[in-house]
Amino acid sequence: MQQNSKRFGTAPVFFxxxxxxxxxxxxxxxxxxxGTLGFWGVILIILLGHLVTIxxxxxxxxxxxxxxxxxxGEYFIISRSFGLNIGATIGIALFMSQAISVAFxxxxxxxxxxxxxxxxxxxxxxxxxxxxISLPVxxxxxVLIIKKGANLGVKALYVVVGILLISLVLFFLGSTxxxxxxxxxxxxxxxxxxxxFFVIFAIIFPAFTGMTAGVGLSGELKKPSxxxxxxxxxxxxxxxxxYFFIVYKLAKSSTVQELLEQQLIMGKIAIWGFVVVPLGxxxxxxxxxxxxxxxxxxxxxxxxxxNAFPSKxxxxxxxxxxxxxxxxxxxxxxxxxxxxxxxxxxxxxxxxSIISMFFMVTYGSLCLISFLNHFGSSPSYRPSFKSRWYxxxxxxxxxxxxxxxxxxxxxxxxxxxxxxxxSYINYYHKERKGLASxxxxxxxxxxxxxxxxxxxxxxxxxxxxxxxxxxxxxxxSFKRDKAxxxxxxxxxxxxxxxxxxxxxxxxxKATVHQANEELSRLLIQVSDIENHVxxxxxxxxxxxxxxxxxxxxxxxxxxxxxxxIFEYDKDNPDNLEDIVDNFSLVGSGDFDICILxxxxxxxxxxxxxxxxxxxxxAENANLMILLSFIILGHPDWKNGFIQIFDICRPDKxxxxxxxxxxxxxxxxLPITSKNINIIIQDQNVSTKSIINKHSFNAGLTLIGxxxxxxxxxxxxxxxxxxxxxxxxxxxxxxxxxxE
Length: 739
Fold this sequence. Notes:
Layout: H1 10-21, H2 24-64, H3 74-82, H4 84-109, H5 114-124, H6 131-173, H7 177-181, H8 197-204, H9 224-253, H10 256-261, H11 265-269, H12 273-305, H13 312-318, H14 329-345, H15 349-376, H16 389-406, H17 408-428, H18 437-460, E1 469-474, H19 482-491, E2 496-504, H20 509-525, E3 534-540, H21 543-550, E4 563-569, H22 576-581, H23 583-587, E5 592-598, E6 609-613, H24 618-632, E7 642-648, H25 653-665, E8 676-680, H26 687-694, E9 700-704, H27 707-713, E10 727-731
Parallel strand pairs: 1-2, 1-4, 2-3, 4-5, 6-7, 6-9, 7-8, 9-10
Antiparallel strand pairs: 5-10
Helix pairs in contact: 1-6, 1-9, 1-12, 2-8, 2-9, 2-15, 2-16, 3-4, 3-15, 4-6, 4-12, 4-14, 4-15, 4-17, 6-12, 6-14, 12-13, 12-14, 15-16, 15-17, 15-18, 16-17
């Protein structure tokens, strides 16, 4: 927006807010509230309501002093904090609330002419419709805003706020016979009908929701960082204090019956009340309508400037301003048309409830933004005015709670509408997806604190339940994906996984650029699947140095990595020698080692997982059984099964059967006896030949290996399994308990 359009100071912010706070509900409903709940009951309502409004006012003040708030006020703050898609979602709801609020206030204005409606009904037996007053008033407001814009609107605001002030002064100066003959004191005041507390709260609460009205003028303020905090906070606190005194005056000056039966009871109390209070009601409703009709177009214009709507032509048209005074003329026209529609409808009580819900969503969002900024502790968040994190959190929690207390159906309806709007915006603005920095900063802090807590707690535990936290290093990520698949199976439900794509070379500007590019490619490559693996890159000139670096990095879930996965191509095992050479390096730490032999054969999930164990070798056997159970938990294996094979000598058959039966009966083995196969080994047939024969069609085959075998036989340990498909060789560092 052009610089010479910045023409307002703090006063318009304050007057726009205070005129909306001291609105129609003050004159029309406060007497009824005091009559129903008593003095202390309404005081509690005011205090509860301001548990939302004061934190919101402080949150806005804080955010406005951290960054320059441009046009759109609340929408600008939310969209620049939560991201444009979430911001546009709440912004559209906020605009509709502001636009419909114009109609709400204009219709409320007609209550000031109750005497006229009663007179016509009595004299002419004719019910004059409210639209006879509301439509001409709406037309007058429209002409005022279209022709003169916010500048004249602000000047008119001063006049109507002046009338409102005079009305309130004459109300406080007034007296009644009841006040003179009764001795009202705070000690004698009571709470009546507590069962109706939230019914009355729902009626009264919209009176407190005007404190952010002036923020919508942010794009035309000379110093938003000064005017918004000062004007908004002053209006909120001033409004609360005035409410306290009004409730006291009402409770002291009238009987319960009068408070319940006379809608304009303030007119019976005030000096010249029969004229002044209707005039004050008219002033308050017109000032609120003026405030809304000035603010709503600016919210709509800000939405259009951010291309919130699917049509480029519509965005351009709605964002247009008038050359002479930079008024959002087209956005004003749309606002007026919406207001006219609801004024013509005449009764918008139900719409008023959903308006309150959207305002509450806005207030809750502003408090949440403040809280997340405190919690996220970003160095760029340095407001000169500071609220407290617990104040903002209170505002957010109470906002949500109050929504459901006012009306659960309307609260749910508001959330459903917001979800639908967000889904649509996300659909046509796919390029704007992603977490805003405010969420990532908070997640970083949360993750850091949780990891430190886990570290402290785990150091005190004597027994630690085993679960896999695996790390895999591969430079062939774009050639084969079976290693990533295995890690994703492990990480789906029971385990955690980190996949490191290796960039061969020394750390330099070129390799860093290559790492960033290839990481982006990998993330795109897995974007269409349900991924539970953390993916990163590692730059290293040699395989050994890459492995040495990788096994020292902390686990992604806060627990130390306890498993390393190597991978090679069965058809072209050119890196198998490197794996064997680094086996002892990894074995020097507390790591289980898995070596995946990727086959060109596709994995037949329906053929299940074959686990080849030695029941006398509990270290490898238990890990293989547990790992097969973990892998089977992935949806890819939903039709799969586990088949366990144990090869034994003829003289060990009974002993082996007894051992396996014990595992099954104790429930420590997650399979049934029908899935266990005991194979008697012929002395003339090798173990590899037996495995090739029985696991020819297996989806995945698990085979145990020992460090001594690899030390003496090296790569030959992994050869000779040509008939079977993808194979996972497993070396367990220590025995795992199956429970």
